[in-house]
Amino acid sequence: MDNIMKCTPLGEQKSLWLRKTLLIMKFFVLFLLLGTIPCWAGVAYSQNVKMSLDMENTTVHDVINAIEKKGEFYFTYNLNQINVNRKVSIKVENKTINQILDQLFSKSGIDYKIENRHIVLYKQAASEVEAVKQQKSINGIVADEQGEPIIGASVLEKGTTNGTITDLDGRFTLSIGKGTELIVSYVGYTTKTVKIGNQSTIKIVLIEDTKTLDEVVVIGYGTQKKSDVSGSVTSISGDKLSKIPTANAEMALQGMAPGLSVNFGSGAAGSSATLQVRGVTSWKDDDGENSESNGPLVIIDGVPGNMSYLNPEDIKSISVLKDAATAAIYGSRSAAGVILIETHRGTMNSAPKITFSGYWGLSAVPKRLEVCNSAEFIKVRKMALINAGTDESRWPKYISEYERDPSQFADTDWQKEYYQRGFTQKYNIGYTAGSANSNVSLSAFYSKTDGVTIATGDEKFGFRLNSDVTRGKFKMGESVSYSRWSADLESNSGFSSIYQVTNMEPLAFLYDENNDGGYGGAISGMGMSDAGNQVAFNKLIDNTSSNDYIAASGYLQYEPIKGLIVKFNASRNMYFGKSRLFKPTYEIGAAKRNTMASLSESRSQTTNDLLELTANYDKTIAEKHNLSLLLGLSQEENKYEDLSASGSDFENNSMSLMGHAKSNYSVGGTKTRSALRSLFGRVNYNYMMRYMIMASFRYDGSSRFAKGNKWGFFPSVSLGWNIANEPFWENLKETVSMFKFRLSYGALGNQNIGLYRYIPTLSYNNHALNYPFDGRETSMGYAITAFPSSDIKWETTVYKNIGVDISLWNNKLELSAEAYIKNTSDMLSSRNISLATGYNSSILVNDGKLRTTGFEMQAIYHGKAGGLKYDLDLNLSHYKSVLKSMANPDYLYEYGALRTYVGGEIGEFWVYQTAGIFQNQAEVDEWNTAHGYKDQNGNWQPLQPVAKPGDIRFIDQNGDGMLDTNDRVKVGSGTPKVSLGFNINLAYKDFDLVANFYGDFGAKRYNYTKYQLERMDHVFNYGKNALNAWTPENPDTDIPRAVSGDPNKNSRTSTRFVENGDYLRLNNLQIGYNLPVKYCKKMGLSNLRIYVGATRLFTITNYKGYDPSTGSSVGQMGYDYAAIPLSRDFMMGLKFGF
């Protein structure tokens, strides 16, 4: 079948892929060179820069300041040795720094040393002998407790500005006075003071200080010390995420933060995860789903963005704002929580550094369902027909033909043909550098992943540029990023791909060269089903998407007085979407034919513009009162437009452009616009880190509401009390270093109600609304067809949160627990209106109410045992969402076995309850005698009149003698009672291990795939369970008899298909080796780490479906509707820098 191939619009041809890769590399090199210009100069800056000075009768201090401003140098010196108030005059023209300093300090007894842009001044002695008496040189090494050198540690002579930093081997050399002390410090370690005696060499060991780890957390429009936070915030470091190999940042978050749910609808190519903070926030009654209102606001570097397009390697930190106190500053967009993301930026005074990371791996589905082969399928099918009493003359022809000659048929394992072992790869390269007043960070990435199903996959690439420049009291910077996400998607003929694969008879051949397209299917004249060849659909149909995301923002910051920062920020985010679906002519067996090719294409563009002006003022009064004030203005505008077209009847399958279509043309498009204007502010105060209060507000005006309802006010307040900082706690502080209570209350808004709901909208109709004018040809007419909901207003969520944070044994053990209630009111719901209005419809009113309650706990332990260091992080979450009211008190939303109704939990399973299998006719008769009703004629109507031995017994819950939907009972919910995350980080010498576990407990799953494979009212393939169907010889089974047509409706929605959804999964396992620095240095590297790992290595569960974690959207939680399972990946990778 060499002639069978699929179109490759993503550029899988080698030459196209190579050209695209080279183009990306060229752009990256260009940006790399441009970004290097302001920072690389630090290496030889002092030799190349020249400046001019003309200063009369001034001080040395003023000359030093002039040099620092002109040349980006910075000085350190000992005020006890250097007289900077000495009067001097200097006039130089176009001289190097060495020439200037030689002239400035000529005959003054002052000497200098230059390291890059750092100039150290020191006093010369009268003679070399005297210098030896007064000064000495100390050589040392700074290491951690395992003996590993610490690079970049600060070594400072106490009481002076004389200092240096350690090199790549942790070594330093410093000239100091006799009998002095050295202060040695490094981020994440306890600062150490060392007295220097007569020794000339020294080894200094720093001890890790957990007290300073993650000390600062990001909050809205600023940062705050973790110990000062009185609201609910969870921080996740980018280092943790970087050890989870994925091109999708959302997927890396599962189990990382209590209260943050990461749900996967499918493992198909082009799919992304959905995020949810603390359960359901809003409910939309027209379709039971409101993902826009239940997804958190994502802020990337201060600008609303899309996490799906973010490279995980670019993330520095993530903060999850979970209550009103922390999220209210974002007002109407924050009711469902806020996720703040900081990306990596360069640091000032840092040498250029290049990093590279990459991984390669193989992926596959972890399990396949057990379905019948050809012989087993024939056996079950015959059994079903015999039990139904079907005359053999009416049996499908394939049964007799198979028994006569099985070689006429195939024995195709459709899952084996459909699922594939995919290859995944990802590469990241980054560059950072910084001078005295500027920094730059540049990164690029590329990833390509084969889907777990045939002929699918996705590809991502992009770059990010961040930079900052400081000039005196001004600071400015920008963030620019571009990402593209392209995918070859699943294709089908209208049915779920999984159902096509599992239900397709194994009798059918995969290929048939006589068919148009070359693929097989149902054999003509054999009476086979119309299930399709999913492999053929994926191979032949061109179903692709590509999305480009461009984000650009810049800021200008001014500090007029100490502590006051005024900042202006402007940004634009643009999304360009493109999709294409081309169905060629094909013949896939007798049942699936497409005689006319068709094409559908769409283009869309979304533009988000944001302007913000903020003023921050921070002040510490009398070293006790810490005050922070914020005031800001914001304006946001969102535009969207799309254009779609379709056509059919192409000359041939190669001519698949829209212009080649001959008939059935259709063109459509939309254009929308919305805006938001806001005033916001916050006051943050703490007294000696004991008592904290934070109050914030946001006043939002939205174009989505009518005049009079456009503006909403959303305030919040939080209180904190750290008992451990009270004087009476002093004796306990070595054991309990923090004991903080938190309490918060506030209101959050939701404007995600759709557009133009409050104004009349016009619709057209080609028939009913057309009008003739002056006897001429009719013209298309428009009319108002929906009654406007002019009084709708903001949905409001009121939050109450109480929490406690405890730190023990110098923060070795960190504990936190909190409980919350969030009440959403004024939710939109539908109310019927009188037909007298002229509209046969309903209007939206703010009558809905929803209540979500929950609690969270987290325990983090930092430990050591010999040479082993370990961090253990356990978090637990629980929530329950109940619909309290709707405009219609009898409101009911149903999705299969799921129900949502007033007074009930969102997404409950309501099914018929089974009571075993009838073993004989006597049991059937006894049951029907005891259960039934008398009709109006007085005749007895049994409950299950057509039941036979082997059928399922169903319970009549309300006792009315009939089986109907009123007999369904609640058997649980798809929402887990408890979600668990457990993260392990181990380090022993040069080895490290990372393990991330996640689990859900207390949830139910409706196994719809099992329903499809065990039902008897169709003619498709069966699961192997059908071989264990009840027969008189096989009575000890829970599988009912096989009977064609299923007269007793054994496959009705019942407890038979509801399963325990508990599971615990090892999401990520990674074992790494870090090459010692001394060997890295020989290779010209600063670090090198290699690792092997696996994702979703195992799942402990009793669930019989593909994956207990799929099918997890709001309102459909736990409904496994044939979703493609998540893959299991094995990979290896490396990361190095130089």
From TrEMBL:
Keyword check for Chloroplast: no
Keyword hit for Ribonucleoprotein: no
Subcellular location: Cell outer membrane
InterPro entries (alphabetical): Beta-barrel_TonB_sf, CarboxyPept-like_regulatory, Plug_dom, Plug_dom_sf, Secretin/TonB_short_N, TonB-dep_OMP_SusC/RagA, TonB-dep_OMP_SusC/RagA_CS, TonB-dep_rcpt-like
Main subcellular location: membrane
Coiled-coil annotated spans: none
Residues of the Secretin/TonB short N-terminal domain: 73-124
Domain of life: Bacteria
One GO CC term, this protein: cell outer membrane
Family recorded in the similarity comment: Belongs to the TonB-dependent receptor family.
Name by which UniProt lists this protein: SusC/RagA family TonB-linked outer membrane protein
